[in-house]
Write a structure and sequence with these properties.
The complex is a heterodimer of chains A (194) and B (427).
Chain A lengths: L1 H21 L2 E3 L2 E5 L3 E5 L3 E3 L10 E5 L7 E7 L24 H14 L3 E13 L2 E11 L5 E11 L2 E10 L3 H15 L1 E2 L1
Chain B lengths: L1 H16 L54 H18 L3 E2 L2 H14 L8 E5 L6 E3 L4 E5 H6 L3 H16 L2 H10 L4 H11 L8 H11 L3 H17 L6 H14 L4 H6 L13 H14 L7 H8 L3 H9 L4 H12 L5 H15 L4 H13 L7 H12 L3 H14 L6 H12 L4
Parallel strand pairs in B: 2-4
Antiparallel strand pairs in B: 1-2, 3-4
Helix pairs in contact in B: 1-8, 2-7, 3-5, 5-9, 5-10, 9-12, 10-12, 10-15, 14-16, 15-16, 16-17, 17-18, 18-19, 19-20
Classes of the chains: A alpha+beta (194), B mainly alpha (427).
């Protein structure tokens, strides 16, 4: 009986711990800090689902309707770090290097999207735009999921010393990208140094 | 690499277990006859003797009937039906009518007796693989097309896959597995996938299938069948052993020590483990054939040329620069497409950034822009290197040429801003 009780207590504690570890966090309208790098301001409620799927160091994943329908990556990546987490450590992945040029930084993001398994990602309309006061690059992108769903994206990247700050939004081209385009514009424009 | 193995395991399901739906679309390249009455001449018009093109022949009938859905073979067909439906909607499907028509033509030339059975799909996956399901659903991956040197090598691989199909190797494999532990559970999954009860799990089956694969005997037999098909169709009998040898060389050139150690057994040809005895058997057969045969290298290259840029970019994203270098060397062997080959050699060095790579990248980009087929991006990369070295006027020249050659470049605004900055004495 004692063993059963201890087992139950252990199971309960484990479940509680596990539950606490994997819960998504509600982000109310207001500021959201990305590491110690920059702060964005959201005008609607978002969910921080970073704990639900393992991410690389410094990478946060937010969503409104679930990651399958919209993903907002907010990241601050150190030199040598990656955007795309791949569970197989032997698989080479794109890594950020501090000496990358502007087009190479966008290439790093696009290659990371390919590493996630998206098909033939392509960037378009690269143009200068600031992120949290640092000169950066804004770009649009198109890709497809492996089952064939068309995806549209928008990214903003800027280097701050050896660190890369990044905002990247991905959503199905049909409805979801357009539905949040204005919110994403506002979020990108709201970024300030932390 | 595990991602590759998972993908390959799924592919094996097609070859090892599948079954298919009836496809009613016309084969690629064939158009339905125009029957609109409005196009007919008026009844009193004089007859016009215009030579009309002959209507395309109807697709030949399949060589085999659909098996009973309650049978084990029917289960495999049901599984293939589902896999084929997924392939037709896949984001990886290459829809180019020209490329699909070309591959279909080659497959029917290789095995005319199975032409009515084959429904071929080109998938944009940067690995060497092909598969054929029991229902005639065939996949050819872009990584295979990038690595084959000529039509004879492609014909050999298609003949090899048709060998698995004609000899029902996947059914043999299933029946062998049924005799092993837990096989009843496996069979229930297969039967379920056919729609006769339990809902099957193709991913799970794929994982299991990847463990077993075809037997060495199956592979050797398919090699010989592929060889015979290709030889009868007039292709070079050396194609098979040359292709297999190249694949082994590519694996040995991998940057990844695990890949090098595993040879081709767990790398680029996971479902078709290669071994030296298979190569030797094909060499022996080629010597005995003592026939010339055609490689049709030029027309094969013409068919894949429009895709080289996309396929090389996808291969580069694997970040196995040793293997990509081998592919580029092979593409350059006949002095063709040197602009794109040199550009991608430059890309390897630019991205890898190992010692000496910077100078090598600049040299390869410089070689590229001397060729008529150089991608415009070669000028942009030279501009970047020049700008970093504070050779601003030179950088502006490269960037300007880049924009002239790529007027719709996606990074035009960025490059224009860079030119303005460099012209103003920045950096």
């Amino acid at each position: 009986m004692n063993i059963t009780r201890r087992g139950l207590i252990a199971a309960g504690a484990g479940s509680a711990l596990l539950g606490g570890c994997v819960a998504a966090r509600l982000i109310e309208p207001g500021p959201y800090r990305v590491e110690r790098a920059f702060t964005i301001r959201v005008t609607q409620s978002w969910s921080d689902v970073t704990p639900l799927a393992r991410q690389e160091e410094g990478v946060h994943l937010l969503t409104r309707d679930g990651p399958a329908l919209n993903q907002l990556y907010a990241a601050s990546i150190e030199a040598g770090g990656a955007l795309a987490f791949l569970p197989d450590r032997d698989t080479p992945r794109p890594r950020y290097r501090a000496d990358m040029g502007d087009t190479e930084v966008v290439e790093f993001v696009i290659d990371s999207i390919a590493a996630w398994g998206y098909q033939a990602p392509e960037s378009t309309n690269l143009r200068p735009q600031a992120l949290a006061g640092a000169q950066g690059v804004r770009f649009d992108l198109t890709t497809r999921t492996q089952p064939g769903l068309e995806i549209t994206g928008s990214g903003l990247v800027a280097r701050n010393g050896d660190t890369l700050n990044l905002l990247l939004f991905l959503a199905p081209s049909e409805h979801y990208f357009g539905a949040y385009a204005a919110e994403i514009e506002a979020i990108m424009a709201s970024a300030t140094p932390a | 690499m595990k991602r590759l193995l998972t993908a390959t395991a799924l592919a094996l399901v097609f070859a090892a277990s599948a079954a298919a739906q009836q496809v009613s679309d016309p084969p690629a390249g064939e158009q339905p006859a125009v029957t609109d009455a409005a196009l007919a001449p008026p009844a009193d018009a004089p007859p016009v003797l215009v030579q009309q093109p002959a209507p395309p022949p109807p697709p030949p009938a399949p060589s085999r009937a659909r098996p009973d859905v309650a049978s084990d073979e029917g289960g495999l067909w049901g599984m293939s039906d589902r896999a084929e439906m997924d392939a037709r909607a896949s984001g990886q499907l290459e829809r180019s009518p020209e490329l699909n028509a070309y591959l279909r033509e080659v497959s029917c030339r290789v095995a005319a007796e199975y032409c009515g059975d084959i429904r071929l799909y080109v998938m944009n996956r940067p690995y060497f693989n092909a598969s054929m399901a029991p229902n005639g659903y065939m996949e050819v991956w872009s990584g295979l097309l990038l690595r084959a040197e000529d039509e004879a090598q492609l014909a050999f691989v298609l003949g090899h896959e048709i060998g698995h199909y004609s000899e029902s190797h996947s059914l043999d494999m299933l029946r062998t597995m049924r005799g092993r532990a837990n096989a009843a559970m496996l069979f229930s999954i297969v039967a379920g996938a056919a729609g006769v009860g339990i809902v099957g799990d193709i991913v799970y089956l794929g994982t299991i299938a990847s463990v077993f694969g075809f037997s060495r005997e199956n592979e050797t037999q398919s090699d010989m069948i592929g060889f015979d098909h290709a030889l009868r169709a007039g292709y070079d009998p050396n194609a098979g052993h040359i292709l297999w040898t190249h694949l082994i060389e590519e694996t040995r050139a991998s940057d990844n020590p695990d890949v090098r150690r595993s040879e081709t057994r767990a790398s680029i040809f996971r479902t078709h483990p290669l071994s030296s005895d298979r190569v030797e058997a094909l060499q022996e057969r080629a010597r005995a054939a003592n026939a010339g045969g055609e490689t049709h290298r030029e027309r094969y290259r013409a068919a894949i040329r429009p895709f080289l840029d996309d396929w090389l970019r996808a291969d580069l994203r694997r970040r196995d620069y040793g293997q990509t270098s081998v592919i580029l060397d092979r593409l350059a062997a006949h002095g063709e497409d040197l602009g794109i080959v040199e550009y991608y050699r430059g890309e390897i060095n630019r991205i890898r950034r190992a010692e000496g790579d910077r100078a090598r990248a600049i040299q390869h980009y410089t070689n590229a822009i001397a060729q008529p087929d150089a991608p415009a991006a070669a000028w942009r990369e030279l501009g970047e290197y020049a700008a970093r070295d504070n050779r601003n006027a030179e950088a502006v020249g490269f960037f300007t040429t880049y924009l002239e050659r790529a007027p719709n470049a996606g990074d035009r605004a960025l490059i224009e801003a860079r030119v303005a900055q460099l012209s103003g004495g920045g950096q």
